Every structure is written in C-alpha cells, then in structure tokens.
C-alpha cells in the first residue's frame, strides 16, 4: 500500500471552526461534514484506496472557490480538488485533514460559438455533455476517455485525458484554448481564450495534466470539431504480436493516421468475446481494430491500403465493417474489455505505461515472464497507434497477499516501460498510484525542479499534497538563489 | 554584446551556467535577433554546438535533434520520408535580414507556428521533450520519445515559447506527421474583410478539413485542402456547395508557394520601415479589431488562421501604434515582431499581463532561473 502524509493533528482539532468558516462562504447544504455523507467521496476510480475527507465543499462560482482557497491558504488547510471522481490513479483521493473541493455544481455550458469552433463550459460539465451540446450542428469534442459519460472536463484538464481517438485528434491539452483558474491564494486568472495562440509562458499547457496540484480550474474553453462524415473499422487478427506490431508501424510509416488503432492480446480477446459475444476471432494471438474516418471516398481509399499492409504482414483474419452497426460491433468487445476482465477475475488493476511502439513484442514477452514471476494473470489492451499500454492485472483481493503482488507486478511493468524508453503513464496520471515510481523516470534534480515549479503556484504545498511527488519538501528547502559574496547579483537588472 | 561562450557538451554548458556571475543572452543561429524585448546581458551563450539529428524514426512519428540543428536540414530529412513538422514553422529571415530559417531550438523557444496551426496545432502541440540546462545550472530532461505521456508536469509545453528565459535547450524531441500526398488551394476574389472571414468561418465549420485559411486584402481569400487526391476532389465539391461562392483552384505547386509566403509574412517583405505586429484574437473578431485599428493608424494588414491571426504593418508611429492596437480588443494579444530600436526600447513586445498572472509568471521564471541568468528582460520589461 502507498502511504499518504500523516494528518496534521492541529488541523483536525480545528475541524469545527473550518466547517463553520466554509458555511460562511457557501450555502449550508453545500458543505458536507456528516460522516455517512462524507463516505460517498472517500475514493475515486482507484478504489483500493479510501479515505473520507475532513469536510466536503461544493462551490458553484469562481468567487466561492476563490474565498475557500483564500481561507485554506490563510489557515494552512489542505485542499483536494475533485471532478467526477472517475480518475484511475488516485489523484482525487481525499485527505483526512483536508477539504475536498467538489466541482460538480459547475455544470453549465456557458457559450457555444460555432463561428469560432469553440465552447465555453464550466469544469463540472461531463466530457460527453459537451458533444451533446454541440452535435445538433454536427460538431463534437474530440478527446474521448472511456469514462466520458461520467468524467468532467475539469477532471480531463487536470489529468490531460486521452482516449482511443487521440492518435489523430490529440489529448485534452491539444483540444483546449483557455481556462479560468483560481490560485491557492484566491487570485483568479485567465489563460488563453477563444484565440488560438497565447503569449507568455504556456501556463495553460502546464496546468493541463497537473493533477490538481497547481490551481483549481473554474472555466474551460474547448475546441470543437466537425464530425467526420463517415467511419469504417477493420478487425485484423494475427498469429503473432510481432506481426501485429509491424503492421501498426507500417500503417503509420505509409503516412496513414487512423482515427483509432487498438490492439488486444489473446487473454483480452477471449475475455472480451466471452463477455460481449462480439464474434472476435479466438485463435489469434493479437487483434487489431483500425478505424479510418473522413469522407467516404477517402475512407474507402485508405481501407484498401491498410488491407494491403495487413496482408503483407501475414494477417490471419481480416474483416471490414460494412455498416455502422458492424463498426460498433467491432468496438463492442474492446469497449467492454474492463467489465469483461472484471467477470473473469474478482479484482483487477489497470496499468497505463507508454512505450516506443517498436518495443511492443519484447515488452509483451517480458510481461509474460513477469506474470509467471508474480503468479498473476495479465490481459493487455493497447492504444497501439500511440504506444499506450493498458495491462490489466487480475487478482483476488480476498486472497492474502494478492493485492500486494498485483501492485508489485504493476510496478515491474511500469519499470519495464521506462527501461525501454517509455513513460510511467500515458493518460491516467501519476496520482498516488505511480507516485513512488517517479524516481524510476526522473533524476532527483528533475523532481526537485518540478517541485520548485509547484512552489511558484503553491508555496505552502496545500493543493493536493501527497500526489505525484514521492517526497514532500518545504518550498524553502528547494529554493536556491545563488547569493555570492553576500550580494544578490545584479539587483538592478530586469529579472524576467 | 561581447565574449561569446560556446560550450561543446551538456556538462560544459551546465558548469558555465552554474559558475556564471553575469547574465547570458542565449543564441542559436541568431536568425530572430530582435524578437522579444531587448535583452540586458553582457555575455553571449552560443548553443550552436548542439547540432545534428540524434534519432529519427518515421514509423514512431518521432524525431530528436540537437537544438541548433538547422530547421531546413530537419525539414529536408523529413521530406525524404514523406513527413513534416505539422505546425509549419515560419522562416522570418527576410523580416530580420538574416540568412536562414534558423534552428529547431529557435523556433521552439519562440513558439512560432504557421498556417497549419489552424488544423494541426501549434509548435507547443508537437514538442514532446527536451534536454537542457536551467538558469540555475541544473541538467534536466523532460518528456520522452513517445507521443503520449502525462508523467509529471508538461515542461516541454512550458519551455516552448519561453524565449530562452527558463532553460538553455540542447536537444529537442518533436512529434512529426505524414505530409499530405497533395494539396490545392481554393481562391476567392473580391471579398471585403468581414465577408472573407465569414466565408473562412463557414469553411472551417464544414467537414472539408480545411488545413489553412487566409485573406489578403486586395489579393484574395484562400482555403487549402490537402490529403489524398480523391478526397480533395470530393471535399472541394462539398465546400463549393456549402459556401456558394465561385472559387478558382490553385495547383499543388502554386499552393505550396502561396502558403510559404503567408507563413513567412512575405506580403510585408518590402515594408522595411514599418513596425510589424502579429495579433491573435478570436477569428470572428478579426475584422472588427482591424477596422478599429485602421480607423486611426496608417497600416497594412492580412489575416491567417481564418481571421484569428492579424498581421499588421504600421507606418510612422513613434510607439508603433501600441496603445491603439492593444486597446482594440479585450481578449487576445498583440506581439511586436519587428520594429526600429527606438520603438523596441519604448514599448513592450508582449501584451502586458494582469497583475496576478504577471506575478505568477515571474515566480515560474524564478523556479528555473532564480538569478535571472538567461535572457533577462526578454519576456517582461523591468
């Protein structure tokens, strides 16, 4: 189990006073302090970790967020921001001595601007609701994390969420134009807007994926796109992971960027087919779903090219969707991979490393070895186009040490990803889940630099402490002005 | 500007920076020497030795190169494999009277993107990682050779467009994309600014996947279509029905020339004495903003990014027209790209920021460069 910072007794003793102060800022029922109600917030999508917060605050305006943060800042109280709580890395895990800042009441679409291809929404609006709000004009919001029916755009910004279409359409960070946010001091700032590029440091880019450690987003301007006219999918089976991997590389090297390119290994194919009865070929080692989208004529043209590439790579089976219904059937198994695995195993954890694609066969082989070493099964679904692996480790939490073994297995997989030149997380975030593995990827100097940056936003370390960084430092320890001979060098010079 | 220092290795660079007492002006090939505010520094830190492509894997869509690698060399290499830098980095050598399009590090440090920014994103969307030395003399690496990564803060984005004020970059990892197989441009003649921007907006709202949209007053309104040939033909017809205007078609070669010219602000090439501005606003606001400015200033203009990027050349204003320009809109920014030394020393090259944001930006700077050793003053005047 990953340890969280010990609660501050002096803050816990002031709980009554803190709750009362929040009630001065918010209407009474927007402050939750009764134990049974707090339990609803005790975990996010990383459900193995649970901790009821000290109190939940549910603001509905940026001004209220500002007042809450200013109060927390002035009184040394920690704050954990939360969207819908669907994150998979524990980024919204509450703290026993912290305020949980629930953003669910920010649920309005403020402005839809088709002329500028953007929408201004509050952070508690769900990902899918943005598409629902603009689809009557043929538009959609491109990033599509699998939790899109529930996850909020504010959470997507915090985690820089991806989805199966991000190879072609980008992650959250590539699809937002601006935010309004509140600093821990209560100051409200705006970054970007409806214009395309902004000057100054790219704090919008920095905020995206910062996991609630730098500020609280209170408004988001997203780019919306016209839906592709049509989409067709191909289901391609291979007798080896090597052939499937080479096929993926060849498609991209041929200059084709599919709307989606997913891969599943044999255990995942079987689990998905058993669950969704989707007619996947069961005697192949690897299955690719390749989706091409755009005008019909372009899709047909590219399908024939991908088909030729798949055949060159000795595909064992190949089907092309002939109708929208068939396309959705191809996806049905992949989209139900998680519940499907949930059916064959009492528990599972989902990992999220990214690797250079060409290393896939060797990573899958090494993963099979690790599976034997830890005595646990693993099924792989894989955003093949961008190298993002989702190994699902199967275990039974009721069996003595299986959870510990699953965590150790997961950590070994992520180390493997880093060792082949990849990264710990492609789209789920570090949170608490991968926090203690950060030194596998970053030197101490690099981690210190990232924490100094954190200090620029939050000098007291009150926003979401215990996440992302394995060791908490006080900002004063990290600061380092080279003061030589007792004098600040060039005190008269501009410092920016 | 004296005493250029030219480190040969990352370690040498780090030790120069760590030991330095005087601040540095950072330089690659020096092709955008006057972009940003005037730098107050007594030493020149030349990064020219960090040159050369370290790895290029077309099937992974990844290229890593030394920061001083010439952009032209990278683009040539990519073209051989049918790939490109999809943010269409500009070549402003004619604006600054310099000899080449500069280095990868230069275009990343200045965060410059061309016409395709409209569809494929900005420079920042294509920078996946870097190696470099902070103003404090620490060697740091950020990002990785993968296109999808959310591990830790997105420092590659922060460093892109930071004008060398945070980190001296030695190597950069970028995402590359396949070049379209072919392209053509639809040309509409005789449209007023407002009509042209409306037309471009309608085109962008269609599913025609327009990859660039510009309007040059007195010349034409341009929409670029690219991809595979049968798809272009289909989208051209769709667009014609959707827009209801008559367009002529510019072939691949002419289209390529046109968009290089827009990208590089060639329509302004001859205006040697004017102050050049690049104004970024919501695309539909472009014409109104321009109208407010032209009512008071003697200026020429054209639009890129479907109206969202206004290039403006202002004649004969001792302050470059800054007050009028920056009061012509409430959301967006106006960047001074080139002006006389007089103008540059008088006004800020960048839009002044609200107080809280300016203070935050200053703290961000200090977190990398506590003693203001790198390009002091370039982003915010003292």
Which keywords apply here?
heterodimer, A: 18 strands, 35% helix, B: alpha+beta, five-stranded antiparallel β-sheet, four-stranded antiparallel β-sheet, 18 strands, 25% strand
Set down the secondary structure blueprint:
The complex is a heterodimer of chains A (496) and B (382).
Chain A: H1 9-13, H2 15-25, E1 31-32, H3 35-38, E2 55-57, H4 62-75, E3 78-82, E4 98-102, E5 109-113, E6 118-121, H5 127-134, E7 139-140, H6 153-159, H7 166-169, E8 176-182, E9 188-192, H8 203-207, E10 216-223, E11 225-226, E12 230-238, H9 241-253, E13 260-265, H10 266-276, E14 286-294, H11 296-312, E15 315-320, H12 324-335, H13 337-344, E16 347-350, H14 360-374, E17 378-383, E18 388-395, H15 402-419, H16 438-441, H17 444-457, H18 475-478
Parallel strand pairs in A: 2-4, 3-4
Antiparallel strand pairs in A: 1-2, 5-6, 6-10, 7-11, 8-9, 8-10, 12-14, 12-15, 13-14, 13-17, 16-18, 17-18
Helix pairs in contact in A: 9-11, 10-13, 14-15
Chain B: E1 2-5, H1 10-19, E2 24-27, E3 43-46, E4 53-57, E5 62-66, H2 71-80, E6 83-84, H3 93-96, H4 104-110, H5 117-120, E7 127-134, E8 139-143, H6 155-159, E9 167-175, E10 177-178, E11 182-188, H7 193-205, E12 212-216, E13 220-227, H8 229-243, E14 248-250, H9 252-263, E15 275-280, H10 286-294, E16 299-304, E17 309-314, H11 322-326, E18 333-338, H12 341-346, H13 355-368
């Amino acid at each position: 189990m990953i340890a969280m910072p010990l609660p501050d007794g002096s803050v816990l003793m002031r709980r009554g006073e803190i709750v009362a102060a929040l009630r001065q800022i918010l209407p009474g029922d927007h402050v939750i302090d009764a134990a049974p109600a707090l339990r609803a917030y005790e975990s996010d999508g990383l459900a193995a970790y649970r901790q009821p917060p000290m109190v939940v605050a549910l603001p509905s305006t940026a001004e209220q967020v500002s007042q809450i943060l200013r109060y927390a800042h002035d009184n040394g109280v920690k704050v954990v921001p939360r969207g819908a709580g669907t994150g998979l890395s524990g980024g919204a895990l509450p703290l026993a001595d912290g305020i949980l800042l629930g953003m669910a009441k920010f649920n309005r679409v403020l402005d839809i601007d088709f002329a500028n291809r953007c929408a201004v929404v509050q952070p508690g609006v769900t990902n899918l609701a943005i598409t629902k709000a603009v689809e009557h004009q043929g538009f959609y919001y491109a990033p599509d994390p699998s939790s899109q029916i529930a996850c909020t755009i504010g959470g997507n910004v915090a985690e820089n969420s991806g989805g199966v279409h991000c190879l072609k359409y980008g992650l959250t960070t590539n699809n937002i134009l601006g935010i309004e946010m509140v600093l821990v001091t209560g100051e409200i700032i705006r970054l970007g807007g409806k214009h395309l590029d902004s000057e100054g440091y790219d704090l919008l880019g920095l905020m995206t994926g910062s996991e609630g450690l730098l500020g609280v987003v209170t408004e988001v301007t997203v780019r919306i796109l016209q839906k592709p006219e049509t989409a067709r999918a191909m289901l391609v089976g291979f007798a080896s992971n090597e052939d499937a991997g080479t096929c993926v590389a060849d498609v991209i090297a041929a200059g084709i960027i599919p709307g989606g390119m997913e891969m599943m290994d044999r255990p995942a194919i079987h689990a998905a087919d058993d669950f969704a009865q989707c007619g996947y070929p069961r005697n192949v080692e690897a299955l690719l779903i390749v989706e091409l989208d755009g005008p019909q004529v372009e899709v047909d043209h590219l399908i024939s090219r991908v088909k030729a590439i798949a055949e060159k790579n000795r595909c064992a089976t190949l089907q092309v969707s002939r109708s929208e219904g068939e396309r959705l059937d191809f996806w049905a198994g992949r989209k139900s991979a998680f519940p499907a695995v949930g059916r064959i195993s009492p528990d599972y954890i989902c990992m999220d490393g990214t690797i250079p694609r060409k290393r896939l066969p060797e990573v899958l082989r090494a993963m099979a070895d690790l599976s034997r070493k830890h005595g646990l099964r693993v099924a792989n679904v894989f955003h093949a186009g961008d190298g993002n692996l989702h190994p699902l480790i199967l275990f039974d939490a009721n069996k003595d040490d299986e959870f510990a073994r699953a965590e150790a297995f997961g950590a070994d997989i992520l180390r493997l990803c880093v060792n082949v030149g990849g990264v710990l997380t492609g789209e789920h975030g570090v949170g608490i889940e991968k926090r203690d593995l950060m030194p596998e990827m970053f030197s101490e100097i690099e981690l210190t630099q990232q924490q100094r940056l954190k200090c620029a936003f939050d000098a007291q370390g009150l926003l979401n402490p215990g996440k992302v960084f394995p060791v908490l430092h006080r900002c004063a320890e990290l600061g380092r002005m080279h003061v030589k001979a007792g004098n600040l060098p060039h005190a008269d010079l501009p410092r920016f | 500007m004296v005493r250029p220092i030219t480190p040969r290795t990352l370690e040498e660079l780090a030790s120069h920076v760590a030991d330095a007492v005087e601040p540095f002006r950072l330089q690659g090939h020096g092709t955008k020497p006057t972009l940003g505010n005037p730098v107050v520094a007594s030493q020149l830190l030349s990064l020219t030795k960090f040159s050369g492509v370290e790895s290029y894997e077309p099937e992974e869509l990844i290229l890593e190169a030394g920061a001083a690698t010439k952009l032209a060399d990278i683009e040539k290499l990519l073209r051989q494999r049918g790939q490109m830098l999809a943010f269409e980095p500009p070549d402003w050598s004619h604006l600054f009277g310099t000899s080449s399009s500069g280095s990868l590090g230069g275009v990343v440090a200045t965060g410059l993107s061309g016409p395709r920014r409209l569809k494929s994103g900005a420079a920042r969307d294509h920078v996946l990682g870097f190696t470099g030395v902070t103003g404090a003399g620490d060697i740091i690496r950020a990002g990785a050779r993968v296109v999808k990564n959310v591990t830790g803060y997105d420092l590659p984005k922060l460093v892109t467009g930071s004008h060398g004020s945070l980190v001296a970059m030695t190597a950069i990892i970028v995402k590359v994309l396949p070049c379209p197989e072919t392209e053509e441009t639809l040309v509409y003649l005789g449209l007023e600014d407002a009509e042209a921007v409306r037309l471009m907006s309608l085109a962008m709202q269609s599913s025609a996947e327009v990859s660039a949209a510009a309007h040059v007053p007195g010349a034409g309104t341009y929409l670029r279509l690219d991809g595979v040939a049968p798809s272009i033909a289909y989208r051209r017809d769709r667009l014609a029905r959707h827009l209801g205007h008559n367009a002529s078609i510019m072939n691949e070669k002419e289209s390529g020339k046109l968009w290089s010219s827009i990208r590089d602000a060639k329509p302004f090439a001859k205006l040697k004495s004017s102050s050049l501005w690049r104004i970024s606003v919501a695309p539909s606001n472009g014409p109104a903003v321009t109208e407010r400015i032209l009512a008071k200033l003697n200026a020429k203009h054209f639009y890129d990014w479907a109206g969202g990027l206004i290039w403006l050349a202002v004649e004969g204003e001792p302050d470059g027209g800054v007050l009028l320009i920056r009061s012509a809109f409430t959301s967006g920014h106006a960047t001074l790209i080139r002006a006389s030394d007089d103008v540059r020393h008088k006004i800020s090259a960048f839009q002044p920021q609200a107080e809280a944001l300016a203070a935050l930006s200053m703290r961000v700077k200090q977190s990398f460069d506590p003693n203001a050793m790198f390009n002091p003053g370039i982003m915010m005047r003292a």
